[in-house]
Amino acid sequence: MVKFVGIAGSLRPNSYSQMALGLTCDRLRALGAEVELLDLREMDLPLCHGGKEYPDHPDVERLRQAFLEADGFVLVTPEYHGSVSGVLKNALDLMSFDQLDGKVAGMISILGGQSNSNALNHLRTLNG
Ligand SMILES: Cc1cc2nc3c(=O)[nH]c(=O)nc-3n(C[C@H](O)[C@H](O)[C@H](O)COP(=O)(O)O)c2cc1C
Question: What is the pLDDT of residue 127?
């Protein structure tokens, strides 16, 4: 079975990004995929320090393992100041090519202002 993992870069209680992720994951499941939704609001992820090991933060390994095992992933970002949220960027910074490269990627951006694709375009150009 095809495996997907999904994360959304908003920590807000009633986040539209998290809602969009939930709906997308439901749709993928309905299409027959196995989907793991990781809610970053419930995970203890430190700021990326550029090193590999985060022994005091086992959720880093949980995040990495889920992405490593997945065939594809869904990323949802709120638009913050015209770009990807720091929460999502940091989660991606905690991973590497091993987890992100060569996979199917679905991307969604949520914003409060006039409709545009700025954050989405920035998300697309982040390197695996
Ligand atoms: C720090 C910050 C920066 C934001 N910058 C933008 C922006 O540049 N453009 C925009 O349309 N909305 C902006 N917004 C509004 C959010 O994109 C909007 O509220 C969105 O729903 C937030 O996502 P969430 O519902 O998943 O928390 C910003 C919100 C915050 C908190």
Answer: 76
Q: Which residues line ligand 1 (CB under 6 A)?
A: 10, 12, 15-17, 78-82, 110-113
What's the pLDDT at 35? Answer: 98
CA of 121 to the centre of ligand 1 (A): 16
What's phi and psi for 89, nearest 5 deg? -60, -40
Q: Domain coordinates of the chain in residue numbers?
A: 1-7+27-79+88-115
Share of the chain above pLDDT 90, in %: 98
- With vertex at residue 92, the alpha carbon angle to CA 83 and CA 55, rounded to the nearest 5 degrees, is 140
The CATH code that applies to domain 1-7+27-79+88-115 is: 3.40.50.360
| pLDDT given for residue 128 in this prediction | 65
Ligand 1: residue of 12, 41, 80 to mutate (most ligand atoms within 8 A of CB) is: 80
The type of residue at 47 is L
